[in-house]
Amino acid sequence: MKVFYHFSKVILRQVMVIPAISLIIFIQCSTLKDLANIQKPSVSVENIRVAGLSFDGLELLFDIGIENPNSLAVTMASFNYEFYLNNQLFLKGVQDSTQSILARSKSQLEIPIALDFQKIYATYQSLKDQDSSVYKMQLGLTFDLPVIGKTTIPLSKEGGIPLLKLPKISVTGLKLKNLSLTSASLELETKLENPNSLNLILNQFQYNLKINERNWLSGVKNQAQAIHSKTTQPLLIPFSINFLEIGQSVYQAIVNNETLNYNFSGKINVGSSDLLLTKKDIPFLTYGSITLKR
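^ that's the sequence the OP posted. Answer follows.
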């Protein structure tokens, strides 16, 4: 009886082991089949966003879609990029970016590109007078794939970017409106040039005028004023001077219509109705010689 019982247990164990071995073999075969059929991920540029825009530069964000068609997870090890302007290499880089893409799933990679306008104009003289430029972005995404090993998948995208320039303040004239023995009423004629293809808003105008090294005028204008694209907007500043305070030599210079040396400085705060463009304080300084208009 004991022999029969022992024999039964052996038979039972063998019966249980056989399915387990079969399962292991099945899993191994499935895994080997998956490895044998491994495919490269597919990559695409899904979106390009402007993350920041100012008179200093532009930041672009490239949203890269990565799709893994395999029943096994794959790993992206790194990526490299080359950014071309005017068909010439402007920026390049390599970055480690270990990222696991699950089996039969999709992931996204965000690649920022920061562009400095002054560096662009220094590198490409022809772009100084341009409102925009074409670009080409070339990418190489490197994956560590089972069986295949490290594989780099190329990707390319072309488009256009805006090119912004700083608006400029200049003095165009100084007009005498009224003259007495003790004072004079004048009007300083200035202009703001907008060289860009988008409309600007002058939010604040802070200024200081020196004539023959004497302070004649200082002030701040806070009233917002639209400056249309590719236009020059006159900015007139009426003011008065007191000869008792500023000196009789100024009276004589005005009466004798002498040439006046001016120094006009300050800053402007400029923005746009385009919310992507951040406001900026832009200092200015211009000087020269001028005669009074009467």
